[in-house]
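Team,

Forwarding the record for the chain on the shared tracking sheet. I've put the sequence and predicted structure together so nobody has to dig through attachments.
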Amino acid sequence: MKKFLAAGIMCLMTGNVSAQMTDGLGGLLIDSQLTGQDFQSIGKGQQALNRVRFQQDLAALVAEVQTSYFGNYAGLDKSALEFRGFNGLNWNITASDDGGFYVIFNNLDNQTCFSCQGNALGARRVEINNGGSCQSTSNQVKLLF
């Protein structure tokens, strides 16, 4: 019964999901309602949510830059942007020599790195670890737009 009640409460939570999820999970852990396998499944779900947030933040950043600079990226400066995403990530944005701009991420985990491969949100080119792959736990990804 406690499991169903806890699951129902978790489903009804709104607002800041991450903080509420952490609080709810903490309560369940104290009550010893979660098994090790349940906890691993929740961890995987949180990682997937973080990758989706990363992709949403990247889309918001690219949209802001493209609509604010209208193709003239020469004065592009990270501190001048309204964008406040990518919490906890080491990143930078700058104009490229070919008239576009690029976003560079340092120390990306391999799953987030994999989500950047291919045509990530319209990037003209993606450079991973200077021509390598996403096999490292700390990857450098450069997305050229």
